Amino acid sequence: MNRSWSRTRFPLTRLLAVLLLATAWLAGCAGQSPSGHPHATDPAAPRERQASPSAPAPRLQDPPELVSRDGVLRAAIVVERRKVRVGDHRLYALTYNGMYMPPTLRVRPGDRVDLTLTNRVREDTNVHVHGLHVSPRSPADDIFIAIRYGRSHHYSYRLPRTVTPGTYWYHSHADMMSAAQVAGGESGVIVVDGLRRYLPPALRGITEHVVALKDFQIHGNAIRTHKLKIGTRTNRTVNGQQNPVISLRPGETQLWRLANIGANIYYRLHLKGNRFHVIAQDGYPVRRVYAADTLVIAAGARFDVLVRAGSRPGATVLETLAYDTGTAGNRFPRTDLATVVTAGAPVAPARLPTDFAPNEDLAHAAIADRKTVVFTENAAGDEFYVNGRTYRPDRVDFTSVLGTVEEWTVRNDSDEEHSFHVHTNQFQLMSTNGKAHDPDHRWFDTVNVPARGNVVIRVPFADFTGRTVLHCHILNHEDMGMMAVLDIVPPRPGGK
Ligand code: C2O
Ligand code: CU
Ligand code: CU
């Protein structure tokens, strides 16, 4: 299916300029794998790439990487307010290591993570590893802690060997301030290596790109962090860049790690004239690869996709289509995100995989408990509830038993969509509004719940006890109450 790229909406001059640039870059990169790091574990390799300052249409830059070495990821992250380049602007941002698009943390199943977070901003913060199946207790992924100004906190834990490969992310989970801090810049990508082993041999060395989606609004000389309005005009970025160029050779297949790591908004991604071939969702590889013309990426969600360029040179657009989250929600306009250029020496198009990775299946699991989680909001839209209550960190709202599987109905009794997320364990999506989900790709950690609708999920409580949270990942909603505490407790001795 080598469709030719659609060329509508592209003035010829822009197309020519972009093609010339792409050709020049490809010539310049001949001999090295252009930002593809199939086994990116060589700690000596330089990870930071510099943009050519004179280039009118900047090439997409992958974030720098912090890579685990000999089974350990040692990372130091400093939170700092700094003036940085954000898209086409220079603004004060809440940065990790001085960057609006901070390093990607690259680990493998079974690795130790030793992460020191130092707070140099005059408000409390902390960091959460979104989607990773690790303990919710200190010194692991404890989101109840507050790291004060001037202090450091040491996170230390081992990833189980069963951690599934794919794309995850890290972000501030500061109580009542997650939206502000994430909007300000406090989010980055985590990659768990291992997806490539499911690819056919011809594709194992393909180039990959992080395609991290963040947006910013401007307030004076800074990114707006407070009084965020979800519906106002915003600047969408890819890896912190506005409308960068992603280049492929004719026939080339690449792996793109699509990650919605902004504070509040949704994306409905579309690559004109082409399709996404989904190989993993929320860090869980699919059983069978499926092709999608559009992908709705709710706040916090990720998709790992293969993209195969057509056989002819050309340019197209990676865009987010207009999307409406409901009468109490928001209408996001169509926006260009990146220019995708096919140029250079052609590559023989590879066959894309169909059967992909083994998937656990809870369809026939014994269900230890059934729970109902209801999302509602007040008419003013400034208070949001789980089962009628706003969040309190010191109150346990749900209790589940380690070693069991539960079925939850997550019901949305409001007139806008919400992005349901639970920490610590991934879940299997059974149905949306009563319609069964495709069993070939139904593991997630974040899922959209339609307005006045519901989803049914099955959650396995494995490996870890402790207090954790579930919430809406539209962080404005989370900060205004739409979060609840889940306590995972050990089974009673001899008990049920
Ligand atoms: Cu992205 Cu509570 O998480
Ligand atoms: Cu999370
Ligand atoms: Cu919400």
Explained architecture:
The strands form eight sheets. Strands 25, 26, 28, 30, 31, 32 and 34 form a seven-stranded mixed beta sheet that branches. The protein has a six-stranded mixed beta sheet with strand order 13-10-15-20-17-18, with no helix packed on it. The protein starts with 11 loop residues before the first helix and ends in a 7-residue tail after the last strand. β22 (323-324) and β23 (331-332) form a beta hairpin. The protein is 6% helix and 41% strand. It is mainly beta and 496 residues long. It has three domains: 7-27 and 197-342, Cupredoxins -  blue copper proteins (Immunoglobulin-like), CATH 2.60.40.420; 65-193, Immunoglobulin-like (Sandwich), CATH 2.60.40; 367-489, Immunoglobulin-like (Sandwich), CATH 2.60.40. The structure holds CU-O-CU linkage and copper (II) ion (2 copies). CU-O-CU linkage binds at residues 128, 130, 171, 173, 300, 421, 423, 469, 471, 473.
List the helices and strands and how they pair.
Blueprint: H1 12-29, E1 65-67, E2 72-86, E3 89-96, E4 104-107, E5 112-119, E6 128-130, E7 152-158, E8 166-171, H2 178-184, E9 187-192, E10 208-216, E11 218-219, E12 222-223, E13 235-238, E14 245-248, E15 253-260, E16 267-271, E17 276-281, E18 284-292, E19 294-297, E20 302-308, E21 314-320, E22 323-324, E23 331-332, E24 335-342, E25 367-377, E26 384-386, E27 398-401, E28 405-412, E29 418-422, E30 427-432, E31 435-436, E32 443-444, E33 446-449, E34 454-460, E35 466-472, H3 475-479, E36 483-489
Parallel strand pairs: 1-4, 2-5, 4-9, 10-15, 14-24, 25-28, 27-36
Antiparallel strand pairs: 2-3, 5-7, 6-8, 8-9, 10-13, 11-12, 15-20, 16-19, 16-21, 17-18, 17-20, 21-24, 22-23, 25-26, 28-34, 29-33, 29-35, 30-31, 30-32, 30-34, 35-36
The protein binds CU-O-CU linkage and copper (II) ion (2 copies).
